[in-house]
Amino acid sequence: MSDVSARHYALVDRLKQQGFIRTPRIEAAFRSVPRHLFLPGVSIETAYTDEAIITKYLNGKPISSASQPSIVAIMLEQLSVQEGDRVLEIGAGTGYNAALMDYLVGDRGQVVTLDIDPDVVENACQHLLTAGCDRVQVICADGGFGYPAAAPYDRIILTVGAGDILPAWQQQLKPNGRLVLPLTILKNVELTVAFDRVNSYWESDSAANCGFMKLRGAFAESQEKETNSKALDFKEVLIQVNNIYPLLEPLPLNLLLSLYNLINFGHASLKDLKIKAYSQEIEYMPKAKETVIDKNWTKLVLSWQ
Ligand SMILES: C[S@@+](CC[C@H](N)C(=O)[O-])C[C@H]1O[C@@H](n2cnc3c(N)ncnc32)[C@H](O)[C@@H]1O
């Protein structure tokens, strides 16, 4: 086995051991797509670490990247893509996640991936061709509007952070479709949530902690309605914890996330969290122990089962 393949497989093995890759199909997708082909100019060693790799900055701020492989795995497990599915991705970035999903949908399916920046789109196209994924459609468009030309979709995934569930995404999904997105629940609290439609509302199937760069374009501002939260900044928690316990070894991430969730939600694990998203027009009377968070387009109702 070459050094590149050895590093590639070692990363997949680690993602599996750590529980981020849980199903054989997702494992096979990760094994079949070499991440370094989507990161030209990045060393092989770096391409196969479990790190996000920034690929573009604007005014000193990161605006495009290859997401951290562990969060890519978590979100693909949440998305549960089936063979033959039509999938829309918002945030093409390097094209790596689109290539993984191209493997998962197979010959009968279709992946459409959007990015707002023409140069990012051009690079993603190049990477996908190099990796042999010539069926993926890469389009330059503002994902806030979805992509009606290829709708309806079985799955929609955002790989860029949203503050709300925008109408276009709801309209362009099939009735039994699934939406996975990094959603800012409260200021400083971002979760990747898998939503399924249930009657007139959306219900979460799973949620996990995450941190993504934010959606740009027409809907960038209007999503930031929720500002007066007392939720803690995760980076601030890390600094405070390490001030109290100046350890040589950093605390395990899982422990820190549990602490963070405990402080922000009163629950260490997100396993029992249920989020329902109702359209803003619907009158909703919260039941006991439910928290309602008002967004521009939706009301999020949080409860612990
Ligand atoms: C974290 S990167 C995506 C990573 C990518 N999925 C991968 O596998 O490499 C987020 C991407 O979202 C794009 N983006 C931001 N706002 C967008 C919008 N409104 N519509 C489409 N893409 C957007 C950024 O340009 C950036 O490339």
Automatic annotation (TrEMBL):
<dbReference type="GO" id="GO:0004719">
    <property type="term" value="F:protein-L-isoaspartate (D-aspartate) O-methyltransferase activity"/>
</dbReference>
<dbReference type="InterPro" id="IPR029063">
    <property type="entry name" value="SAM-dependent_MTases_sf"/>
</dbReference>
<keyword id="KW-0949">S-adenosyl-L-methionine</keyword>
<keyword id="KW-0489">Methyltransferase</keyword>
<dbReference type="InterPro" id="IPR000682">
    <property type="entry name" value="PCMT"/>
</dbReference>
<keyword id="KW-0963">Cytoplasm</keyword>
<dbReference type="Pfam" id="PF01135">
    <property type="entry name" value="PCMT"/>
</dbReference>
<dbReference type="GO" id="GO:0005737">
    <property type="term" value="C:cytoplasm"/>
</dbReference>
<dbReference type="GO" id="GO:0032259">
    <property type="term" value="P:methylation"/>
</dbReference>
<protein>
    <recommendedName>
        <fullName>Protein-L-isoaspartate O-methyltransferase</fullName>
        <ecNumber>2.1.1.77</ecNumber>
    </recommendedName>
</protein>
<comment type="similarity">
    <text>Belongs to the methyltransferase superfamily. L-isoaspartyl/D-aspartyl protein methyltransferase family.</text>
</comment>
<keyword id="KW-0808">Transferase</keyword>
